[in-house]
């Protein structure tokens, strides 16, 4: 788990109980309630002790119905990931490095698996090269409180996996831009 993830208790949305699943068979959310739920989820969970209860009250439903609908959307692939947007700078993580790697295409999956196994790596993904200007095809993110520590972590990763001969660049962020999850409803209009 990354240093940042250790600070937070990041978990998936709670799974509905068997009872909630049975309830939704006869009391599923209306199309309007589903639209309202999508709009609310796009804004993030309410910062209250019982966020699913608060959402249920907003859309005139039960918390079990809300949880069951979220679980159904996850099963259907409509929600691929249910997580939080972390404002890491506000938590003291100001040394944030995107390490971009130029990995041979046939080795990308293997190297990505190695990098992903490192607790300090919070994100690792492949992107297409944009030749001739951008040769990098593997990206990983490391968040830290001190630039020197992050650089030492990267050096340790390079040594551990014998990546000294691999071209890479370390891009430290200098500014945090707006962070938010995906948006699918029009602003101010959750009714289609």
UniProtKB/TrEMBL annotation:
InterPro entries on file: AsnC_trans_reg2 (IPR040523), HTH-Siroheme_Decarb (IPR050684), NirdL-like_HTH (IPR053953)
Under Pfam families, the record lists:
AsnC_trans_reg2, NirdL-like_HTH
Keyword Lyase part of the UniProt annotation: yes
Q: Which UniProt keywords apply?
A: Lyase
Q: Which biological pathway? A: Porphyrin-containing compound metabolism
Summarize subunit and interaction data from the UniProt record for this chain.
Probably forms a complex composed of NirD, NirL, NirG and NirH. All proteins are required for the total conversion of siroheme to didecarboxysiroheme.
Q: What does this protein do?
A: Involved in heme d1 biosynthesis. Catalyzes the decarboxylation of siroheme into didecarboxysiroheme.
> What is the official name of this protein in its record?
Siroheme decarboxylase NirL subunit
Protein's organism: Colwellia chukchiensis
